[in-house]
């Protein structure tokens, strides 16, 4: 009868329980071998516990607590006086004990893979005194394994490679599966391997998991990748065991088992004869099914009539053979070439020589096509010479070019004027003779490099170029001259025969044997009494004094004409004038002052004196500027301190005027003319507070508003006037006082033209009021007369 998985588990639990009970019964004889236990002053022999360790199956699926075992002390008489307690790992949470009977149960499902065993401590206590009757004892509950974990490939999925064409049994890769079950108990963790997918190409060792090739001559070019499925099964592969799978991707790596082969036995290419050197003529490739280094090839020309004209190289990226030109092609000389080309593998595997040979041959024929070529000069560079004295039209030389084509078209010549901008030369269009067109000057341009153009008469677009270098030969056409501008001085205290200057000459010409110059004084200067000239015979000359006692007052400058002759044929000469200045010199003969005017100047004004005078003048100018600045600042308005009371500056005048006869005290016209317009200027200081002091009036006059506005305007002008002093002077014209018969006589209250008062009675008051009577007594029409 076959047992299912559930029935098998129950059977294992029954067997384990039987083993536990058997262990408890076998432990009884060991009681008498325990050590004595002392308690409360009396001695007795300790009776041992009746257990050592318990076993419990993992993954218990029942609803009731799982019985683990029973604790029992020989002190326990069964009367309930003893109670059992449990401590340690999982006590109370996983394992519980019946304190009366000592039965231990597991309340939770246990997993050996999480924890394989639990260490606990048990003790028997007197229920009344709660004191131990037996010493505490430690025991272990082991979790008994069942097959509840399938094998797992922790490193999967796998990838591996094996060379193609490998023999049978070649190792590819090893796979490993792990089982979490207990390897020391039963077959739960004993794994065997098998292949589910990948046959018949590969096989796997059942115990080791090593994958090997199972077929010979597996060709990468036919199939380069295989997918394998490997199974690992526990319980030694028996029925009921658990299994796991993984995938293995096996790639066949390449070996050089395919020789190169040209797709064609012959090739033909047409190229124009005008193709430049190093140009690519063709690309050929031998097919090779291998890849990487196994497909690397080399090409070479092994035979043919184009060995020196063409060469072949390999393109490292595409493994193509590249045929290029080494020499210029000429259709008129040769119209075709034949090349025998070999392609061979660079890395040959001796194991596969039987599949060879690992090289191949092909034929390449190159046809040269005729093109219309430009004319070709007989020489790439022509060198010609001509004298700079040559006359216009002198023949310098001849160039020649021809048409290389079979038609041999006539050629016409011309000069590229971009290389002869000054048009010094001409060329005959038919003969190629080059002549001078202008006078030449070697000193201006010693070599002329010109380009000559040759074009076909039938096809002017075909132009050939030749290069001509024309060297100008020198003639003696430049007279010698001083090598530099000399600044020659002679001291007033110079002695006769003293050297004052050494001179040399230059010549723009370039004679073959070098320059030779001759120096002398001109005929008119040869007998002078001041200076003489000595030719040193080395293209230099020395100027010497003939006398002493030179004085600037008498003559400050001397002019000495010197005659210079070169050694050319014919020789040329020139007269150069040397200017000699008379100077005042120090003790070492170094010139100090050379101007005649400086000699007349008084000696008292030295440089230091001039600097002192200039400093004094500048100081005076600064003082003048400071004075002017200070005077301008005094005119500016004063800036008041903000903390000062401006009212302290008000000045009051309480004196009375001089009466009607006093016409100088106040300008009445200014009071009468209300329409005077003054320029308003803004003061830069603060506006003072104005105190208005007025006398009480006994009679209110409606027209006094006009006068108040007038006075306000004048006060505002004074406040903003920058030229006014920082105080106000105020004069008030008010009433005469109380009890006056005439009441107020102030004109400030009586200027209104709309007044209804009658002032004719003023004429009766006597001569003292005559002026007022004239002003007001005649009516408003006479007010401003």
TrEMBL record:
Pfam families attached to this UniProt entry: CADH_Y-type_LIR, Cadherin
Annotated Cadherin domain residues: 73-153, 154-262, 263-377, 378-482, 482-599
GO molecular function terms noted in the UniProt entry: beta-catenin binding; cadherin binding; calcium ion binding
Biological role: Cadherins are calcium-dependent cell adhesion proteins.
Keywords for the protein's UniProt record, in alphabetical order: Calcium, Cell adhesion, Cell membrane, Cleavage on pair of basic residues, Glycoprotein, Membrane, Metal-binding, Repeat, Signal, Transmembrane, Transmembrane helix
Gene Ontology cellular-component annotations: adherens junction; catenin complex
GO biological process, one term: cell-cell junction assembly
Protein name, UniProt field: Cadherin 7
Membrane topology note: Single-pass type I membrane protein
Listed SUPFAM superfamilies: Cadherin-like
Residues that span the membrane, as ranges: 599-628
Cellular localisation: Cell membrane
Family annotation (SMART domains): CA
Signal peptide residues on this chain, from the entry's feature table: 1-27
Gene3D superfamilies: Cadherins, TCF3-CBD (Catenin binding domain)
């Amino acid at each position: 009868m076959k047992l299912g998985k559930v029935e098998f588990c129950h059977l294992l639990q029954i067997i384990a329980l039987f083993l536990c009970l058997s262990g408890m019964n076998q432990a009884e004889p060991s009681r008498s071998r325990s050590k004595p236990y002392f308690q409360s002053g009396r001695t007795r022999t300790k009776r041992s516990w009746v257990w050592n360790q318990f076993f419990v199956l993992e993954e218990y699926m029942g609803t009731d607590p799982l019985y683990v075992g029973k604790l029992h002390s020989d002190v326990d008489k069964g009367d309930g006086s003893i109670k059992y307690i449990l401590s340690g790992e999982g006590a109370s949470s996983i394992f519980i004990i019946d304190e009366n009977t000592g039965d231990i149960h597991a309340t939770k499902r246990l997993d050996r893979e999480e924890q394989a065993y639990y260490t606990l401590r048990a003790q028997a206590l007197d229920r009344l005194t709660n004191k131990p009757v037996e010493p505490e004892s430690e025991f272990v509950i082991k979790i008994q394994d069942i097959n509840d974990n399938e094998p797992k490939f922790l490193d999967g999925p796998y990838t591996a490679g094996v060379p193609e064409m490998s023999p049978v049994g070649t190792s590819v890769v090893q796979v490993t599966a792990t089982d979490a079950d207990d390897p020391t108990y039963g077959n739960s963790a004993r794994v065997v391997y098998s292949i589910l997918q990948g046959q018949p190409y590969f096989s796997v060792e059942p115990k080791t998991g090593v994958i090997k090739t199972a077929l010979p001559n597996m060709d990468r070019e036919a199939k380069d990748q295989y997918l394998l499925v490997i199974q690992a099964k526990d319980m030694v592969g028996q029925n009921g065991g658990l299994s796991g799978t993984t995938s293995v991707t096996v790639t066949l790596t390449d070996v050089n088992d395919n020789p190169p082969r040209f797709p064609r036995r012959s090739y033909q290419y047409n190229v124009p004869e005008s193709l430049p050197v190093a140009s690519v003529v063709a690309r050929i490739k031998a097919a090779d099914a291998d890849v990487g280094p196994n497909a690397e090839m080399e090409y070479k020309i092994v035979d043919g009539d184009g060995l020196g004209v063409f060469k072949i190289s390999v393109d490292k990226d595409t493994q193509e053979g590249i045929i290029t030109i080494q020499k210029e092609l000429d259709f008129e000389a040769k119209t075709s070439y034949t090349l025998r080309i070999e392609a061979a593998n660079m890395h040959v595997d001796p194991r596969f020589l039987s599949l060879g040979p690992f090289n191949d041959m092909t034929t390449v024929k190159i046809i040269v096509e005729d093109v219309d070529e430009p004319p070709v000069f007989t020489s790439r560079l022509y060198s010609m010479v001509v004298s700079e004295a040559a006359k216009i039209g002198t023949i310098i030389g001849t160039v020649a070019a021809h048409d290389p084509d079979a038609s041999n078209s006539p050629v016409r010549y011309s000069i590229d004027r971009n290389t002869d901008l000054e048009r010094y030369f001409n060329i005959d269009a038919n003969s190629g003779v080059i002549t001078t067109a202008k006078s030449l000057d070697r000193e201006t341009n010693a070599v002329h490099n010109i380009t000559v153009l040759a074009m076909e008469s039938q096809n002017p677009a075909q132009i050939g170029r030749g290069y001509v270098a024309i060297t100008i030969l020198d003639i003696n056409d430049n007279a010698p001259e001083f090598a530099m501008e000399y600044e020659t001085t002679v001291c007033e205290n110079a002695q006769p025969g003293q050297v004052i200057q050494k001179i040399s000459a230059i010549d723009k010409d370039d004679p073959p044997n070098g320059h030779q110059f001759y120096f002398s004084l001109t005929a008119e200067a040869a007998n002078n009494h001041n200076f003489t000239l000595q030719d040193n015979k080395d293209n230099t000359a020395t100027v010497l004094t003939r006398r002493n006692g030179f004085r600037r007052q008498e003559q400050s400058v001397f002019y000495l004409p010197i005659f210079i002759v070169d050694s050319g044929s014919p020789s040329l000469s020139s007269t150069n004038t040397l200017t000699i200045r008379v100077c005042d010199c120090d003790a070492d003969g170094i010139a100090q002052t050379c101007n005649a005017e400086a000699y007349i100047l008084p000696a008292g004004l030295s440089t230091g004196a001039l600097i002192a005078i200039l400093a004094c003048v500048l100081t005076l100018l600064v003082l003048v500027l400071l004075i002017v600045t200070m005077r301008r600042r005094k005119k500016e308005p004063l800036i008041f301190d903000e903390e000062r009371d401006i009212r302290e500056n008000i000045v009051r005048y309480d004196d009375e005027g001089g009466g009607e006869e006093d016409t100088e005290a106040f300008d009445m016209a200014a009071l009468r003319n209300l329409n005077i317009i003054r320029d308003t200027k803004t003061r830069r200081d603060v506006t003072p507070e104005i105190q208005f002091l007025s006398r009480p009036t006994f009679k209110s006059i409606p027209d006094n508003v006009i006068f108040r506005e007038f006075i306000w305007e004048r006060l505002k002008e004074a406040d903003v006037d920058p030229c006014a002093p920082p105080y106000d002077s105020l004069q008030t014209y008010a009433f005469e006082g109380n009890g006056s018969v005439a009441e107020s006589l102030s004109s400030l209250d009586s200027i209104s033209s709309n007044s209804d008062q009658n002032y004719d009675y003023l004429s009766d008051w006597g001569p003292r009021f005559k002026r007022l009577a004239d002003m007001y007594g005649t009516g408003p029409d006479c007010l401003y007369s």
